[in-house]
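FAQ: What does the model actually see?

It sees only this:
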Amino acid sequence: MLFNSYLFVFAFLPIVILVWYGLNRLGRSRLAQMALVLMSLVFYGYGHPEYIALILVSVFGNYAISWGMEYFGAHKRDAKRAHLVLGIIGITFNLGLLFYFKYYDFFVRNINRLVDTGFSVKNIALPLGISFFTFQQISFIADRMCEKAPHYAMLDYMNYVTFFPQLVAGPIVNHKDLVPQFQRIGNDARTLFTSAEWTDKESGRSSVEMGICLFITGLAKKVLLADKLGIVVDYGYENIASLDALSALVVMLCYTFQIYFDFSGYCDMAVGLGWMLHINLSRNFNSPYKATSIKEFWNRWHITLNAFFTQYVYIPLGGSRCGTGKRLRNIMIVFMLSGIWHGAAWSFVVWGLAHGVMMCIEPIFARLAKGVRWFITFSFVNLAWVLFRSGSISVALQFYRALFSFSDTGEIWELAKQTDGSWNYLGRLLLELGDSTETAVAVYYMIVLLALLVLAAFLCTRRNAYESVREREISVAGMWGLAFLFAMSVISFSGVTTFLYFNF
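And it is asked to produce this:
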């Protein structure tokens, strides 16, 4: 089920809120959490009921491992060894599920190509969110293995894994951040769900108000910006052979902002939904294109994935405490794994390694002016996104050839025509004033593109959406603005697309 759909906005979400509020206000918090688990499973399995069985196998398998650690810890002398063995079994179980569904076909194809074997490819469908809920449970099992996490009640654990706002595309939430919130609600639901207590601790503002504002903001990012940019991106990548330098540059920039507005829009909606239910989810974006280094970029982009790899891979390998050579090795390992996590294709591996190399060499840029460092970082990120979007190295190389061809075949006109009717109001106005259709549409497209880039750069110098919602009271004008964005987003649902990170 998509956040950006009539079914979710006008049916599923109102039912969830009514049930969640109603049962908690009656003091039936455990029943409310049971209902939340069931509704989260409905959300996850909508359209693909078989996915419910998969996630339940994953949840119950990991919970059984945790229970085994609890049992041996209480009844056996050699508890540390039992924790270690069960932890290895649990991590292997999780990685095995992820490998089978996400990497089996990729592995078989490469083995067949390398040694000329005839292993069959199964064309396994990638279950939604498997990378996200698998990593969450790996973090839990790893902490249990090191005795840094307790054995939670079954209901709390199921809500931790299946909580629908973050289930399909993150953010990747650590158990110590989410489970205590469900436990607190379970212990004192009546008090927490009175109007006087329904406020955010840090800002002192209504959690529901903030949640609605952030959800609408994220919805507008996805529907009104990312999906529109995606029209141009899809056309460009379907017609790479005809791209000239200018049109390739436009397609590249469009994807850079499409993936940002798409993924950050999803995460804004997820955090907003959590606030509506009095649950705080981790922030996942912080104006990443403001970064002046790759290290800073990854501290701002997909923050929870970076935190996972730092805590469970980089630090255990020795982090930056083991000399320059090993530190650089650790960086490359982390970014190689990040590339593999994103997709079963060599283009993702190269994308990850490219980021690792750039992080290793970027100290040589440290003395440059801040504006120059920003330009280098932003340019590199743009070029690397080509690998990410292309799906194969050969397609990426074809795109790079077009980008650096310095040719001008007039393809920008064809590219501009791909925008749908909702983009063409200014084009029709210019046509009425006497311009040709081709010129009018192209001029309108370029104005929209440039305005979008300028707007994004402007917002990076001030509060972003998350900060604005948390730090500023909404004005009357702001309320009307959000209402307008919501209405425009709902009108655009008919042309809705899935989120890009559903593929990862």
